[in-house]
Amino acid sequence: MEMESKFTLIVNTGSASKKYSLYNNDFEIARFYAERVGPTSYEVSFIDLKSDKSEKMPLLESTYDECVEFFVRILLQKGTISRKEDIKEVGIRVVAPTDAILETQLINEAYLKELQKVATYDILHTRPLLEEIYSLSKSFQNTHIYGVSDSAFHGSMSKVAKSYSLPQSRNFIRRFGYHGLSASSSLRIIEKSVGNIPPKIIICHLGSGSSITAIKDGKSIDTSMGFSPLEGVPMSSRIGNIGPGAVIALGKSKGFSYDELTAYLYKECGLKGLSGSIDMKNIIETSTKSESSKFALDFFVYSIKKYIGSYFAVLGGLDMLVFAGTIGERAAPVRSLVCNDLEHLGILIDENKNANVPQLPASIESQNSKVKIMTIEINEMKEIFHEIEKHKSQ
Fold first, then answer.
1. Which one of the listed residues 48, 52, 86, 150 is annotated catalytic?
2. Between the N and C ends of the chain, which has fewer C-beta atoms within 10 Å?
3. From CA 132, how far away is CA 264, in angstroms rounded?
C-alpha cells in the first residue's frame, strides 16, 4: 500500500542567500537555493532529487523577497505537488539571541514580538528572518509554521560557559552559540558511520560562518560563537574575536553609527578584511604568491588551533576531531594545516587520505593517531525536519 503524501517545507534564510527543501514524509524530494551573484542579481538552483536533475535560472532582485512563491511555482509546474495547499507544514531555522524561543514551537504573535524585540539589536540576522517569516505567513496562511532554534543544542552548556563577566542581575546578554543544527547533524552522521558517539569530540564547522564546538557525552559543553554569530574564529567577512576596547576605538575613530559598526564587523572583516577575498579556495590558491592571502590563511588556521587546544583542556582529552561545513568538507589544505603540529594532542592526519577523500563521511587519521579524524557533510535542513517531528511527538 502506497504511503499517503505529506509535504513539509524546510527553510534556511540568510542576508544574501536562501535555501529551501521539500520533504514528502521522511524523504527530501526537492531543493532550491537562491544566492546573490551580483549587486542586484541572484541565481537560483533547483534540484529534483527523484530524477537527480538540476537546473539554474536567474532571479530578479524584486523576486528575491518572495522567493518561496518562485519555488512553489516550479514545484507546481513540474508536478511535484498538485497545489500549494498540499504543503501542510513549514519549518524555519531561527538564529536569534534570546531564551524565549529556544524550544521548537509554532510561530505565533508572541513569537514574532520576541523576534521584533531582538531585531532592534541584531539587525543582520533577525530582520531577514522576520521578513522571511512574514513572506511564509502570507504564502501559507492555513499552514503550521515552526521555528527551530540554531542555539537550542548549546542549552546543555554550563552557566560558566554561557556567561560573560557582566553584572548578572536582569542581564539578557549571554553566550547562546550557533551552528547547533550542524552539530546535532554531525553527531547523527558520526553515530551512523562508526556505530557510536565517542565521549569527547571537537567539531570544526568551517564555512562562510565558522565555529568550533566541544562535545562531551553527546552534549555541547562549549562553543566559539557567543551572543551573536560574530564571535569566535574569523569568518568570510565576520570579524571573529576582537577586544571590546578595540571595538569602541574603531567605532569612535570612524564615526560609525551602531548600524554602520554592526555592518562593518559583519561584512568587511574576517578573511575579506585580511586578504580582500571571501573565497577560501582563492585564498589557498594565491597563498604561495600573495602575502595577504598567506596571512589570512595563517590567521584562520591559528585561531582554529587555539580553540582545539583550549577545548582539549576543557574536555580532558579528545577522541574525535570533526571537520564540517563547506571549507571543512572541501579544503584539504586547511584540514592539513589545522592538524599539523598537534601530535602532542594525539592528532595525526594521513596526508594521502586527506588529499584523496572519495566520499563523505571519511576517516582521514593516520594509523598512529590516538584521535580519530573525520570529515563529514552535514544536513541542517534534515535536522530542522527531525526537530519538527520530535516536537510533534511530545
1. 150
2. N
3. 24
